[in-house]
Amino acid sequence: MRLYDTATGGLVPFVAGHTVRVYVCGITPYDASHLGHAFTYSCFDALVRYLEHAGHRVRYARNVTDVDDDILRRARELGVDYLDLAGRETARFDRDLAGLGLRAPDTTPRATAAVPAIVAAIEGLLRRGAAYALDDGRVYFDTGSAPGFGALSGLDRPAMLREFAEKGGDPEAGGKRDALDFLLWQPSAADEPSWPSPWGRGRPGWHIECSVMAMEQLGGVIDIHGGGLDLVFPHHEAEIVQAEELTGQRPFARLWLHAGMVALDDAKMAKSRGNLVFITDLLECYEGAAVRRYLLEHHYRSTWTYADAGLDDAAAAYKRWVEAAGGTGRRDDLRAAFHAAMADDLDTPAALAVLDEAARDGAGATLRELAAVLGFDLPDG
Q1: What is the pLDDT of residues 307-357, one digit of tens each?
Q2: Do the Cβ atoms of 359 and 367 come closer than 8 Å?
Q3: What is the pTM of this model?
Q4: What is the CATH number of the domain that holds 144?
């Protein structure tokens, strides 16, 4: 199997032992989950299922960032406790993904439960000279101590500064050694949750949360780390330098996989823009398997635009699968073509085209067999 590694910028053979450790960045649960989330997690669901079909034991972790600037701001706007908001939206997210038929992760660590481990990790970075504390209780990672910072994204410094500012960084904050240094710990406002630490009561920064949760669940070197393309910089860039500095092991992840973005009316779906198609709404009108088929019709690395007509077509194609699945015909050539597609950078559009051909040709047994690899449970008569 070959997969596209963001770190090297090309297709690489995927080589792993019996157990494959997969970490995918999860949601910050301050609003309903949308089609962009569904696309990312459907793609990684297909990968995990295919690895399991190939005989691997997969240890799949997907975190929940339940303390973060966005969730605290939203809880304040709604006048609710941030953990109540997180619990409600996480439950809705889980229901939505179950409605799509996605395999549940093996573990779903929460940032709030990892705070003691995060404090210990920050202390370790300070001891190693990779971080520094300011008198006001802030602690920053010193990007000057990590010459590899920027290697994953390949961005030059002006581009890094621009993205850092756009994605919640604080390049203009006083006291920093470098504008790109990112927060590991920050004092909490009076109405925000806080935890004790050697630097005063406060809360962790976003990037250190994922590094620590990934290492706690999967160890210092993991096989596949994934998420949406928008997380490459600064989030995943920061995860790498933190984790590798803490453990002394490289690489933190052997393979970096990133899913493309989903657009609506030619603009990326984002909560900040409000241009969202919600999973819950789609599941009121379509079968979950039909929605998932629509998502997998797009290659995981592609950026594409949602269209009602495309989803209608996918629903009709899924109905044809169901109607054809009772047949007994077999096509070994289609089986080979399906596995060739999946092994070629998880080419789910080509794999679905094989299933369509099996349906057209009356090869119901082959259709059921191959659809099951992707988690589609078709009736056999």
Answers
A1: 999 999 999 999 999 999 999 999 999 999 999 999 999 999 999 999 999
A2: yes
A3: 0.95
A4: 3.40.50.620
Instruction: Enter the DSSP assignment of 298.
Output: S
Distance CA 35, CA 224 (A): 23
> DSSP 3-state assignment of 135?
coil
Domain boundary at 247, 268, 289, which? 268
What is the total count of domains within the chain?
2
Residues 128 and 247 in one domain: yes
| CATH number reported for the structural domain that contains residue 363 in this entry | 1.20.120.640
Which residue range forms the structural domain that includes residue 329?
Answer: 310-373
- The first and second tokens of residue 288, run together, are 């979950």
What is d(CA 261, CA 84) in angstroms, rounded to the nearest whole number? Answer: 29
The reply to whether 175 and 30 lie within a common domain is: yes
Closest CA relative to residue 251, chosen from 289, 228, 224, 227: 224
Q: In the prediction, which pLDDT does 323 show? A: 96
pLDDT tens, residue by residue, 78-109: 999 999 999 999 999 999 999 999 999 999 99
DSSP class per residue in 262-293: EEETTEE--TTTT---BHHHHHTTS-HHHHHH
